[in-house]
Amino acid sequence: MTFKKHIAIAPAALALVLAGAAQQASAQSLFDVLFGGGRVERMSRGEFPPPPRADRMVRPNASSAPRHRNNAVAAKPIEKITGPVYYTYKADPLAQVDFTALEAAGKTVSLEPSLENNAFREALPGLQDFDLFAEKDIAKALTDYYSANPDFIWVSGATANGRAQDAVRVLGEAESYGLDAADYTVDVPSAGFSMDDMAARQRDLIRFEMTLSARALRYVRDAQNGRVDPNRISGYHDFPAKPLDLVGTLKALAESGDTRAYLESRHPQNAEFRALRAELESLEASAENEIVVDPKLLLKPGGTSPELPKLLKLIQRDHSELIDDKYSEVLARLDNSEVYDKELVPLVEAVQKKLGLKPDGVVGPHTVSKLAGTSKADRIQKVILALEEMRWLPSDLGSPRVFINQPAFTASYIDGDQEKLKMRVIIGRPANQTSFFYDEIEQVDYNPYWGVPQSIIVNEMLPRLRSDPGYLDRSGYEVINSKGKRIPSSSINWGQYGGKVPFSIRQIPSEANALGELKILFPNKHAIYMHDTPQKGLFNRDSRAFSHGCVRLKDPRGMAAAVLDTNLDHVARKLKAGHSSERVSRKIPVYVAYFTAWPDASGKVEYFNDVYDRDTHLKLAIDKVEAARAPKAPETAQAL
């Protein structure tokens, strides 16, 4: 994987690991705890293939290992491998539409001119000195289309036609789809005009025609692809381009008998998008939360916060069944206190347990989110951003499919309209973020090897190997050279490598393997996949961002059985037989997604914390787009 994959233990999780293996930790380094140091115990006989033949092993020169440790030549500095970064978003600049190409079309004589065709040609002089700005590809599409089709789409006779009226109404309703209606504003020529000044009327109509076509194309592109190019946000965003034939779109609008239906059909056509849109409508009509609590609150027993009285009021209002005589007396005394007294901790723990959270008495963002929700403004923004992100995905999400929502820390297997399987997952920690992309599941590996990424080899293994080159030999890892042969790690002078290491390193299948007993592959350039893990305790956490970027599954056998369209007994038999792989025979898309607002199986929209702060980056990108589209002063516009 690029920098972020596989096993990773964040500081909080590390404390659990160390606490659970205190004696071992005292004898091992931090690297040993993280990467399975010490002797690896294999599973039962016959479960794994035998070790490689002796003739495949490259033996070191008898005197080579000591020289590595005592080499007088200074070791190269280690050049850390860095992961993807966030970019400063650059919006597409607007270009002035060049209407000179239409002049030639206006002089071309049609063999069978229509009344509209003649009217269009007569109106073309009205485009002189007309400053219309649009995205470069839209500007080009306008001149390409009208040069080949010199007729009005939106005008009949001397007025805007019914098709235009429908289009203007749809563009004006853009807010209901999470878009900004100001991006598609078009001034419709008034119905009244003077017959004595037809030149002025023709000028108004031809300019209206071009403006409405330009804004309709922007609307279609935004509806299908989104306002933002996600790949410009960061290296963690990875989406294929969605081709859009803009000239073909104008042809379709010219021929469509139902303009509204055509324009609205450009938005994603799936149940999740509809649920988010309905939620936006409901939020716009709703009142603000009575009690709004700081969503980033972190309050431990004994701590102080002015947010505490708000939380206590919410508990009294929404969870009164948990308040017995004992807590009634405590709340009567402390309901306005800003000090989180130890007497309140059992009550908070009871509420956390009811809400499906870890009952630890610590009031953090997850407890606040479940107990108080988020403000109306925050929820609206999350939904608008989710609608934007939905446009990066296929309109038809496919069935069956696997959907991983990183902020929710969940993975679901969905077949038809039913969520057949849902489980907790562990995703990349903030320093090793899981990417946002989609792909197709291809294979399940049983008792897998773990191919260690170069980033982990260089950043985390290399420092240890320089002082202890035989470490990998003792710890269940294999080193493979460029010829595909295994070589002892003790035979390598690790100090001569400061950046890319010219060897492959893999951890053999075992109970200590970082991938656990199986992995589910959907090959991608990020080397991200789903897998098991020996660190089962981390699934009990409410926030589960601990990995190097891959997705760890709480129920890997269940997910493997689902994607293979088989049962758990089949998976168990394959695991017992040893290391093997099994191809997935069906087309199953997998979405490694990032939504802080997302509908559950019933269609109810849930809200989640922004683990990687990606909503902030997306909002900044949208703001850049809106700024680029804002009307320019004439002198500024001319300079573009």
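Second entry:
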Amino acid sequence: MSIQVFGTPVSRGVAIGRAVLVASSRVDVAHYFVPAERVEQEIERLRQARNVVSAELAALKRDMPQDAPPELSALLDVHQMLLHDETMTAATRQWVVERHYNAEWALSAQLEVLARQFDEMDDEYLRERKADVEQLAERLLRCLARTKPGQSATPDLDVMRMRDFGGEDPLVLVANDVAPADMIQFKRSVFTGFVTDVGGRTSHTAIVARSLDIPAVVGAREASRLIRQDDWLVIDGDAGVVIVNPSPIVLEEYRFRQRQSELERARLNRLRHTPAVTLDGQPVELLANIELPGDSAGALEAGAVGVGLFRSEFLFMNRGGDLPGEDEQFLAYRDAVVSMQGLPVTIRTVDIGADKPLDRMSLQELRHEHALNPALGLRAIRWSLAEPDMFRQQLRAILRASAFGKVRILVPMVAHVGEIRMTLEALERARQQLDDAGCAHGEVEIGAMIEVPAAALMIGRFLDHFDFVSIGTNDLIQYTLAIDRSDDAVSHLFDPWHPAVLRLIADTIAKANARGKGVSVCGEMAGDAAFTDLLLAMGLRSFSMHPARIASIKQRVLRADTRRLAAGVDAVLNAEDPALEAARLFSTGLVH
């Protein structure tokens, strides 16, 4: 019988194959009490398991394939940090000492405590870090299962690698969750896609799926219980649907879609080095968003003409609260600049806070810290200005990197003219300090992120101080509509087509163009082809997005006539349903 399982779409495309179920290690955890004389022996088992898992993670990171996405290295670092966190290790030992639980039972008991704490967190990003703790517990339990009391554990680096099941049928992985360490082998395995019971759009599983460009559906609840071994599955990564044992007609329809998608991808790939110029001769800048210096190679390969957003906060995260120094930052920024081979690199100053907390705190402290609304707290430029020594170190590092190529500085979440003044003063002091020390640095342009309504409404004043602006649509939508995207009760109201949002974007673009100042969009809308025609019609000529989206956006640009598109802007902005009106005007060709 054919059934459908619904989840969250996190990576586009269609995957078809036979189901391979991976069972959870916690299903058959032994529960027994240990006598007092064996308590130390049981604690030693826990200690050995931790050391072995630490060695396994280190070996996986060391032997990582060259084509593995850079996100995987960072995720393995997160698991190393959690492995040695006292909230995990010390509390687990307490279960053994006080309750005389065996090691496996103690670990499972502490996992339940942590899981409840994560479930109660308000922030979506932090809630989904529960999956990292669960994945780490799975690895520890597997290690404990390989040993009995009194034995020594040894690393098993093959235990997490994907089996090659062979055969002619393509295979699809079905699991409660897929750990980042598992994903290292995923790209070269026989699996064409995966389905997980847990996870969300910002989970590590979703991040890696997008970076590997693998069709995936996460958060499918009971998928691993409803799906049986060897069932035929269709993963619709666009709709977030898993079809179990589809009818021959449905299966053939999806196979046709799969073939069309592969042909389309190959055709788009040929556009990589074609200049992005509209039909009426308007050049359009297609830039890449990156997180780490190593991402520059992927940006160039995708045909990006520069980096429109280097998220520098990723250098600050997953370090146990040990912030990177000036020299470390300089080397990272320099590497990105040199890798881009003379193309511009826009480095955003650290945007810590909200969904990107520093890990100076323990898990319990994080829970307390994020009980309030972090999106409205000390984050982004507010945090930088509150940490002037750290901020000047970052500015000096960026300025030093500018001696190696074209660098621009982007300031996040600016809302007050006072913040602008303080930022410019900090930049001038950093320049002076470099001059006094005889350190080389180049000229940099400085710009502002327009991501709060106050900044969009004050755009005229802001342009007096900045060389360019970049519209961060994700936060602009959230703050304009007062929608917390992490709150499931209202997240459906997060609407990029809302007329108020579109008017703020259109006004920002128009005023920047009128002043001859650069303006780009670097949020999700930039990489969404549904908005390309409208943004071009508004006068936007610079888009910054994930490198994987560049080819499809370039295709829309090459087919666009901006003079004709501009005629439909007012109709879309004044419509009760802008999305419907844009589809009518742009997609059906009434404007074209």
